[in-house]
């Protein structure tokens, strides 16, 4: 005689499991922030040396760019996880999401700079 396990839930609706892994999204955002900030600081140090920026300005600019890169990395990671698909699809979604976030952040910064002039 075959016995079947008793149902563990009395819910009458299907329970879906989220495809997005928050820890991975957070880790991607942190990694993106570190990479973006250090890459920007590397470029900004040349500007400090040429006396185009103070060290403080270079640090602030680098942190801002790093934060933008981190947000783009986190959003792109979440987008790839939510869409799924083949490797090609994942790369297209990753590039589109990261570029879109970068574009939006850059546009927002330009509008803010124009408003302060």
UniProtKB/TrEMBL annotation:
<feature type="transmembrane region" description="Helical">
    <location>
        <begin position="24"/>
        <end position="43"/>
    </location>
</feature>
<feature type="transmembrane region" description="Helical">
    <location>
        <begin position="88"/>
        <end position="107"/>
    </location>
</feature>
<dbReference type="InterPro" id="IPR058956">
    <property type="entry name" value="MamC"/>
</dbReference>
<keyword id="KW-1133">Transmembrane helix</keyword>
<protein>
    <submittedName>
        <fullName>Uncharacterized protein</fullName>
    </submittedName>
</protein>
<feature type="transmembrane region" description="Helical">
    <location>
        <begin position="63"/>
        <end position="82"/>
    </location>
</feature>
<keyword id="KW-0812">Transmembrane</keyword>
<keyword id="KW-0472">Membrane</keyword>
<dbReference type="Pfam" id="PF26373">
    <property type="entry name" value="MamC"/>
</dbReference>
